[in-house]
Every structure is written in C-alpha cells, then in structure tokens.
Write a structure and sequence with these properties.
Oligomer: single chain
Low-confidence stretches: none
Largest sheet: 5 strands, parallel
Mean pLDDT: 90
Order of helices and strands: HEHEHHEEEHEHEH
Number of helices: 7
Number of strands: 7
Radius of gyration: 18 Å
Strand content: 5-15%
Structural class: alpha/beta
Helix content: 25-40%
C-alpha cells in the first residue's frame, strides 16, 4: 500500500527497484517510471520454488511440474535442510511455459525485466539430493540440473527479447562465479548476482567479493 509520496522517494533514490513483496501494480510501476524515466523496475520470480509465479493449487493440478523423490513424494528443500519449499522440475515443458507466461505478463505490466531467483547456477546440489530426473530415473546430478535450468533461462530470455533484462540470482557470495563457472549462465542472461541486498544488517560484508576482488 505504498503512497505516491513513498513511490516518488523510491524512484528518486534508487537506480533499480525489484518488485517482490510490495506487489506493485501496473499503475504503480508506470508512476515510478514517470517520476524517473531512467529507473529500472524488475519483477521477482523464483525459478526453483515458484514463488510469485504459482501456488499450491497449480502444483496439485499439475503434479508433473514438481520434482518427486523415489517414493513419488514431492521433493522439498533445494538449498538446505531448512528450506521446505517444493522444487519445480526445470525440465518440465509446462513449467517452462508458465515461467515464460509470467515473465511476459511482468513485461506487459511495465517491468524492464526479471530477477530469476534460485537458478542454482553454482550451488553444488547436496549428495543426498533426491529429486528424480525423469530422463534417467535417478536423482539429478548438479550438472544435469544446471543444464535443464540453463535451457529454461534460455527460453525465457528468448521470449522476452533482447531489450528486456533477465538477471539470475544464486552464485552464493560471488566467489562461485569463478569457482564453479557460473559465467556460463551469462550466455542466456544479462547478469548474475549474489544476493546481498536482503538479510540481517549484522551479516559480515566480507563474505562477499569486494570490487578489487572482482577485478
């Protein structure tokens, strides 16, 4: 429920705004960009769990889009044991099309592009990862999962067009960009980042690469 005054402050104090929990309307996005034509407004979409894309009703009606374990149960917890979110199957054609549709809808709402969260470009999938790759009948390997996510991102970017932005999040603290060759994903995105913009103020910034280290 941001007021026009609050939106104006956002537009004048930032270079980029990510639309996630605020759920900015099309009219609000237009207002922001009217205040600052150079402002970049992107939409948050979670490519792994489906946050801001789908709900549990979609998962129940389209169970083939969600990863299963060997017992046929919905697989949860891609990033760590505390993460209990269902994990979408990056190879699912329906899921890919759903992401494309959500991205195009965001563009129609005036957004300049998409922040694709949890692409897991460089997070090594744990050895006990139990999400089954339907092509092999065995749990996804890190390489297989990345390959499918790469193709998903490629199709989303192709549908959005070259003048719209697609950023991928999930390169840990930035070091994974080099250590695990996340830069491959730059072939199908406009940028990658390690999300340090959300979290506790007590987090030690030394966990992230600084400017000199990146150079």
């Amino acid at each position: 429920d941001l007021s026009n005054e609050e939106l104006t402050k956002l537009a004048n104090n930032y270079m980029l705004v990510s639309n996630r929990a605020s759920h900015l309307t099309k009219e609000q996005v237009e207002f922001l960009k009217a205040q600052n034509p150079d402002l970049i407004v992107i939409k948050y979409l979670n490519f792994a769990s489906g946050h801001e894309v789908i709900d549990n009703k979609f998962r129940k009606e389209n169970p083939e889009t969600v990863l299963k374990d060997k017992e046929g149960e919905m697989y949860r917890g891609l990033l760590n044991a505390k993460d209990n979110d269902p994990v979408m199957d990056p190879s699912s054609e329906l899921w890919r099309q759903t992401l494309i549709d959500a991205s195009l809808e965001a563009i129609d709402e005036g957004h300049d592009g998409i922040m694709a969260d949890q692409i897991v470009a460089v997070n090594n999938i744990a050895k006990d990862f139990a999400g089954i790759n339907l092509k092999t009948g065995e749990p996804y390997t890190t390489e297989e999962y990345r390959d499918e996510m790469y193709e998903t991102l490629r199709r989303v970017k192709e549908a959005m067009g070259p003048d719209k932005l697609l950023f991928g999040n999930s390169i840990r603290n930035g070091q994974g960009y080099f250590e695990e060759e996340a830069h491959r994903f730059l072939e199908v995105t406009d940028g990658l980042h390690a999300e340090g913009c959300k979290g506790h103020a007590s987090w030690d910034t030394k966990r992230y690469y600084n400017e000199e280290q990146w150079k």
